[in-house]
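Field log, afternoon session.

UNIT: design team B
ACTIVITY: writing a sequence onto a fixed backbone
BACKBONE:
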């Protein structure tokens, strides 16, 4: 697979991670190096590992996962986005935004934004292509896009009035991404 095609796939796969990172940056009042590392590392790692899993899974579970993978991503994003939307609309003055770069929320976001990379791994296996270089490039591109998105979101949250509505906005973005995944699959 030519490098240009690998980069195009990597950038396309990184778009969901980029959008979630922007929403996370808006939700956080302060984005530290630790936040950046955790979110970018996890998103990059999951984006790199999912095509490898898909590649090894090959034909065995291809039909099952292609039929239900979009539902899994949709359910995860629906749950997280709905929870963020609920929290944003029912927020106390003392209540602060939950950090999306820790705990189960981080893992669920990582899985939800990298489900489509699994299909790329399946495709590469069917074409008889190696997975190692594409997976590394996909992971690095996702890591970079996530870090950039997190800081862009921080800027938007600090410099605009978006910070006041961060959880509502973030929840809405996640719900929209989930619906987009479902719409494309149906």
């Amino acid at each position: 697979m030519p490098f240009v095609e690998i980069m195009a796939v990597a950038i396309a796969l990184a778009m969901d991670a980029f959008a979630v990172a922007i929403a996370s940056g808006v939700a956080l009042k302060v984005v530290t190096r630790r936040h950046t590392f955790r979110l970018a590392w996890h998103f990059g790692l999951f984006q790199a590992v999912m095509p490898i899993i898909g590649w090894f899974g090959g034909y065995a579970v291809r039909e099952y996962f292609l039929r239900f993978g979009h539902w899994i991503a949709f359910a995860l994003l629906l749950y997280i986005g709905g929870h963020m939307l609920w929290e944003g609309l029912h927020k106390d003055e003392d209540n602060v935004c939950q950090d999306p770069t820790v705990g189960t929320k981080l893992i669920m976001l990582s899985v939800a934004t990298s489900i489509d990379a699994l299909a790329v791994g399946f495709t590469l296996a069917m074409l008889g292509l190696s997975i190692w270089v594409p997976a590394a490039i996909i992971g690095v591109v996702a890591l970079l896009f996530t870090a950039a998105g997190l800081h862009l979101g921080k800027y938007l949250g600090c410099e605009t009035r978006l910070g006041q509505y961060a959880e509502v906005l973030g929840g809405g973005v996640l719900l929209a991404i989930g619906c987009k995944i479902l719409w494309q699959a149906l």
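LOG NOTE: Residues 3-185 form one domain.
NEXT ACTIVITY: expression trials, pending approval
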